[in-house]
Structures are given as structure tokens and as C-alpha cells.
């Protein structure tokens, strides 16, 4: 009789957990759809220098304000048949697509991270993530910031061939802050064991700290005019109409000279990064102090995220510089540099490098699709980078295990 009562209680508990999981899943999907609705605002207004908060949602054709019951994510577009209620002007399917993709990403990642603990699925694609109630939501929050930002950046890049740097800076800041403060809620040993968030050991932390000092020096030199930014004519109006600025689209424009300005900007970062690392290795007292200080969990998290930022920026910027020097024309955009820097601040140095080498496979798939279906529209590289980052983020464990076995454990 006692055993039967225990089985009944266990069954009810399982049912309650399952029901709670269903409720959380529906809530997560709805939140994702609402975020997608806001992303549509960002996609339309941000590159046009319009306010994201004022005025409220309105039809771009007749300028009438949209009622809240006509602005329900996903459902309103379907109920209205993709047309404005007042003027019957067509509403771009992009609004529906962005909302649906965002909602599905939120729900999908939630299930992959926490579905097993709610009894909704039988596996967990990324192990080590704490339960939702044990601050696992912090990991989810940071990753959804990354997903949301990259969805908006990719949509803007697809339409206008530009990535707003403010989106990248916001994601970078989120990565730096959450990587630093998450250690107060999640056991740091768990974070480091499962690579839940970026963290750096003393040597890598020295590289990141030195790089930060170098970046501050480079920015000061840039703002004081000691060094010039590259492709200035793309970012400022021509002041002298009698002597117009050189046009980067001119076949005689010297792209190699422009990219040398970027090398000058990067030199202090590289020198300070390597220099501080060597100091900590050569001088034992400095090295011991740095080891003790850098391994404070919050500092290790911050420097790990910072190192990821430099790694993401560095691998794309290096490709851009080498490609420009080799072919004599601008290779990759600075928007891609900042995009991968933001990714590195969230997922870490090694994963963002892996993502960079996965991205070409998405580009190859698109090229094959074009070849078979005779499509001619070229698309920018930002969406491919974003898809690669997403894959590495959610499938971190199997991908990184394979990388470690392939390159680091082969000698054993």
C-alpha cells in the first residue's frame, strides 16, 4: 500500500513537471514572437536612423497607427492576410518570417537546454547547463541576446548590405557583463568544466588584458588624429567639391594603402597583448600576482569574454587585411569584424574561430543552390557567419569534443 502511494505521488510529480514544461514552452514561444516583432522594428528603423520607441507601430503606406489587436505577433499578419486593415497596402512577409523564426529559435533552444529536465525530450544537446531555477536562465538569456541580435543584423545585411555596429556593440557588452557576473549564481567550476561561458586562464587572460590596453591606446590615437581611419570617404561627406575624395569603387583606388591604416590601428593591440603576456611569463613576481588576480572568477569570466571578442575580430580582420593586400580590393567588411567579435564575447575564443571555418560551408550550400536553380542574387557574408555561430553555440559539446580530439589529443 505504501509503495502504491509512493508510485502515485511520483506519477503526479512527473505529470506536474511535464505540465510545467509545456507552460514554459508556450511562454517561451510567445516571448520569442514578441521579440521578433520588436526585431522587425529594429530592422526597419535602425539603419534609417529612426527612433526605436517613438512613434508607435504604424502602416508605412497610410501612416495610420496600428491597433494592439492588429499587432499580435504572427497571428495578426495571418488574420489580416498580409495587408493593412485601413489602406489594404501589402505588408511584407518579412514581418511574419522574422517573428516565426525568432519564436522557433527561442523555443528550440529552450527545449534543447532544459527540455530534458521537464521530461519533454530525452536528450540535452549541450550538457552541463544548470536547471532553469539554478540560474540556467542566465545562459539562456545571453544566448537569446546573441540570437536576436544576429537575426536583426542578418536581415539588415540581406537588405542593405550593412551591419549596424550598435547591434554588435550591444551584444559584446552583454557578453562581457554576463560572463563577469554569472559566476555569482553559477558554480565557476561548472562554468569552466562545460565551457558554459567564456573564461580565461592566466596566460590567455594576460593576452586579453594587454589587448584591452592596446585598444585604448589605438582609439586615443585615432580620435586625436595621430592615425587615420580607413575608407574615410565612405563615412563623411565630401567637403571640397573641386577636389572630391577618392572613390573606393574607382578601379584606380589604392585599397592596399587604405588597409595599411588598419594595420597601424591594430599594432598597439598586438604589441601590448604579446608584451604583457611575456612580462607575466618572464617576471615571476608579476606572474604570480597576475595568476592570483586573473583567476578570481569574475575577472576570469571578463577576460575570457574579452579574449573571445579579440579572437572573433582578429580572425575576420586578419582575413580582410590579407585578402585586400593579395587581391587589391576590399575583402570582407568591418561589419563582419564586429559581428564575430560580438559572437566571441558570448561563446568564447576557440568556438568563434571554429564558427568562422564552418561559415564557408553555408556559403557553399548557397552557391550550389544558385547553380541548380539558376538564381543570380548574391547575398552578404554576415548571415552565413550568424548561422555558423548559432550551430556552434547550441551544438557546442560535440563540436568542441571533436576539435579537441582532432587537434589537441592526437599526441596521446
Shape: globular
Q: Structural class, judged by helices and strands? A: mainly alpha
Fraction in beta strands: under 5%
Radius of gyration: 24 Å
Distance between the termini: 56 Å
Quickly count the domains: 2
Helix-strand topology string: HHHHHHHHHHHHHH
The helix count comes to 14
- Total E-strand runs: 0
Average the pLDDT over all residues and give the rounded result: 88
**Which parts are unreliable, with pLDDT below 50 for 5 consecutive residues or more?**
236-245
Helix residue percentage: 55-70%
* Main beta-sheet annotation: none
Question: Any chance you could write out the topology, listing elements then pairs?
Answer:
Blueprint: H1 2-45, H2 75-79, H3 93-114, H4 136-160, H5 165-181, H6 188-194, H7 202-223, H8 255-282, H9 284-294, H10 297-327, H11 334-347, H12 349-373, H13 382-394, H14 396-407
Describe the structure.
The chain is mainly α and 412 residues long. It has two domains: 2-124, no CATH class; 168-238 and 245-407, no CATH class. Helices cover 67% and strands 0% of the residues. The chain has 14 helices and no strands. It has helices spanning 2-45, 75-79, 93-114, 136-160, 165-181, 188-194, 202-223, 255-282, 284-294, 297-327, 334-347, 349-373, 382-394, 396-407. The N and C termini lie far apart (56 Å).
Amino acid at each position: 500500500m505504501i509503495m502504491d502511494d509512493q508510485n502515485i505521488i511520483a506519477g503526479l510529480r512527473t505529470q506536474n513537471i511535464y505540465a510545467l514544461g509545456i507552460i514554459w514552452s508556450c511562454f517561451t514561444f510567445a516571448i520569442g514572437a514578441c521579440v521578433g516583432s520588436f526585431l522587425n522594428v529594429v530592422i526597419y528603423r535602425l539603419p534609417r536612423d529612426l527612433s526605436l520607441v517613438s512613434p508607435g507601430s504604424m502602416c508605412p503606406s497610410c501612416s495610420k497607427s496600428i491597433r494592439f489587436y492588429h499587432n499580435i505577433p504572427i497571428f495578426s499578419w495571418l488574420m489580416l492576410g498580409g495587408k493593412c486593415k485601413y489602406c489594404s497596402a501589402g505588408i511584407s512577409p518579412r514581418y511574419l518570417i522574422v517573428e516565426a523564426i525568432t519564436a522557433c529559435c527561442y523555443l528550440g533552444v529552450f527545449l534543447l537546454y532544459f527540455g530534458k529536465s521537464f521530461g519533454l525530450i530525452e536528450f540535452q544537446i549541450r550538457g552541463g547547463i544548470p536547471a532553469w531555477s539554478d540560474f540556467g536562465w542566465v545562459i539562456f538569456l545571453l544566448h537569446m541576446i546573441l540570437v536576436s541580435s544576429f537575426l536583426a543584423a542578418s536581415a539588415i545585411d540581406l537588405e542593405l548590405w550593412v551591419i549596424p555596429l550598435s547591434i554588435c556593440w550591444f551584444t559584446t557588452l552583454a557578453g562581457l557583463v554576463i560572463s563577469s557576473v554569472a559566476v555569482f549564481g553559477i558554480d565557476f567550476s561548472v562554468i569552466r568544466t562545460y565551457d558554459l561561458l567564456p573564461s580565461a586562464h592566466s596566460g590567455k587572460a594576460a593576452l586579453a588584458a594587454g589587448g584591452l590596453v592596446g585598444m585604448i591606446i589605438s582609439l586615443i590615437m585615432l580620435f586625436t588624429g595621430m592615425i587615420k581611419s580607413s575608407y574615410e570617404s565612405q563615412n563623411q561627406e565630401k567637403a571640397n567639391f573641386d577636389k572630391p575624395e577618392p572613390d573606393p569603387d574607382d578601379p584606380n583606388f589604392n585599397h592596399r594603402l587604405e588597409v595599411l591604416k588598419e594595420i597601424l590601428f591594430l599594432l598597439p593591440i598586438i604589441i601590448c597583448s604579446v608584451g604583457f603576456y611575456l612580462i607575466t611569463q618572464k617576471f615571476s613576481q608579476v606572474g604570480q600576482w597576475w595568476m592570483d588576480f586573473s583567476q578570481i572568477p569574475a575577472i576570469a569570466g571578463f577576460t575570457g569574454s574579452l579574449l573571445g571578442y579579440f579572437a572573433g575580430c582578429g580572425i575576420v580582420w586578419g582575413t580582410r587585411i590579407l585578402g585586400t593586400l593579395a587581391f587589391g580590393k576590399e575583402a570582407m567588411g568591418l561589419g563582419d569584424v564586429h559581428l564575430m567579435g560580438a559572437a566571441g564575447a558570448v561563446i568564447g575564443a576557440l568556438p568563434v574561430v571554429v564558427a568562422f571555418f564552418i561559415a564557408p560551408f553555408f556559403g557553399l550550400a548557397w552557391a550550389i543552390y544558385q547553380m541548380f536553380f539558376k538564381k543570380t542574387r548574391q547575398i552578404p557574408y554576415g548571415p552565413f557567419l550568424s548561422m555558423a555561430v548559432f550551430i556552434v553555440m547550441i551544438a557546442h559539446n560535440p563540436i568542441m569534443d571533436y576539435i579537441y580530439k582532432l587537434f589537441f589529443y592526437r599526441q596521446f
